[in-house]
Amino acid sequence: MEHLRSPKLALAALLVLFLALGNVALMKVGADEKICNMTEQQLEACKPSVSGSDPTPPTTECCNGLKEADLTCLCSYKNSGFLPALGIDPDLAMQLPAKCGITAPTDC
């Protein structure tokens, strides 16, 4: 266990554990379950707007889901490694509320 005393290695191990647990949590989300008050279907509808080098404008389904979402909860993910690990660009994700005509929380 001597190698885990390195702060960088310990942080890397913690990040890998966090990502693994996060992916398991996402796999368990069903159509009726929600993350930050958005269903898996609504989150998937938004993904083309927040990923890739040529994102598409948000769909009506995405914006309707975002209107119901707990934006403060969603904001809590913006600085984590969780979004990039899922192929989501955090900068594009931060622009999504404005593209849907929604005011984001000021502390986001």
TrEMBL record:
Quote the InterPro entries the UniProt record gives: Bifun_inhib/LTP/seed_sf, Bifunc_inhib/LTP/seed_store, DIR1-like, NsLTP-like
Taking every annotated instance into account, which residue ranges of this chain make up the domain Bifunctional inhibitor/plant lipid transfer protein/seed storage helical? 36-108
Keyword Iron in annotation: no
One Pfam family matching this protein: LTP_2
| Keyword match Repeat | no
Q: Which residues, if any, are the signal sequence?
A: 1-31
Designated name of the protein: Bifunctional inhibitor/plant lipid transfer protein/seed storage helical domain-containing protein
Q: Which organism is it from?
A: Rhynchospora tenuis
